[in-house]
Amino acid sequence: MEAPDRKIEPTPDTAIVWRENRLWLLDQRYLPAAADYLALNSAAATADAIRNMVVRGAPAIGVTAAYGVVLAGREAFASAASKWKQRIGPGLEKLRQSRPTAVNLFWALDRMQSLIDDLPEAENPEAALLREAVAIHEEDVAANQRMGALGASLIDGPTGVITHCNAGALATGGYGTALGVIRSAHAAGLIDQVFADETRPWLQGSRLTAWELLQDGIPVTLLTDGAAASRMSQGGIGWIIVGSDRIAANGDVANKIGTYGLAVAAPTSTIDMQAVSGKDIPIEVRDGNEVLSCGGRRIGAEGAEVWNPVFDVTPAGLVDAIVTEKGVVHSPNAKKMRELMEE
Ligand code: MRU
Fold first, then answer.
1. pLDDT reported for residue 178
2. Do 208 and 163 form a contact (C-beta atoms < 8 A)?
3. Site to substitute for ligand 1 among 56, 101, 183, most atoms within 8 A of C-beta
4. Which atom of ligand 1 is nearest to the CA of 165?
5. Predicted TM-score (pTM) of this structure
6. What does each C-alpha distance from 61 to 46, 49, 66, 140, 214 come to in angstroms?
7. Residue 70's CB: how many other CB atoms inside 10 A?
8. Of 220, 183, 194, 170, which is closest to residue 29 (Cα–Cα)?
9. What does the pLDDT read at residue 260?
10. 172: Cβ below 6 Å to ligand 1?
């Protein structure tokens, strides 16, 4: 692993950093045991980092892919300055193929492609591409802060909440979607305890969400995924607050497998109005070895087969509220989602 010239402080809000003309990603596969950065110099390496979960979480994947396009532009211009628009194609395609469910990836790539279409063929595109990637990154943080305030205003606390997977600063450009709401509500005295599902098989809850919350001084209790319903039945849980990887036009919500979300926080870049319902959302199925082993040790019985879908769809009818930076959609349906997106 390459070390940056000046050390980057490993915090949830500095998980994606552009420095020294390279993209630095805090490697989320090894947190919290190790907090090391990977330096990326190419679109192919960026696509691999997304596929292999160095970076994960829908908005974070989008922001990373945008920086990946900067690297693709540099490579294309270096290989044939006058033909860079043709040469950038394969790099963009690698990024597009990296993961299928989080729509923020495709949203960010489409936005970068629109810029590419407008840029002159004869000039080095790197500076313009970098400005756009930084804008996507900064807008995501601002959207999360706005969602934090809007989401917190729904909470009548102090109460406990349950969250699933990791929808914090690590999963976004910074601050977090669901954890952004939790952060804002905790700061306002509206949340007194967070219960985090451990989230098998990648353990985003126990490794990442707990790490983030504790750095902020927010008390967190870990639950095995199967314990969430029992914890709810004991009372004191005002809300389930989760993020999303893609929201369909009718309000159906795809998020980490095991999500039974009653409230969702996600930027509008997560909403896919082309997906009429959750049935149109492609659900990623990953390698069975992720379930058969834990922490590098085989735990599953020899010979057992595995089905490892990593997202599920919560029907709109089970969702109390979708919080976006444009506003809150209560009891979402197709009409309300259309109105939100037409604003
Ligand atoms: O497989 P992952 O870790 O990329 O899945 C992430 C999630 O499911 C998050 O909850 C979702 O992306 C919302 S992040 C703000």
1. 97
2. no
3. 56
4. 10
5. 0.94
6. 10, 10, 9, 12, 24
7. 26
8. 170
9. 61
10. yes
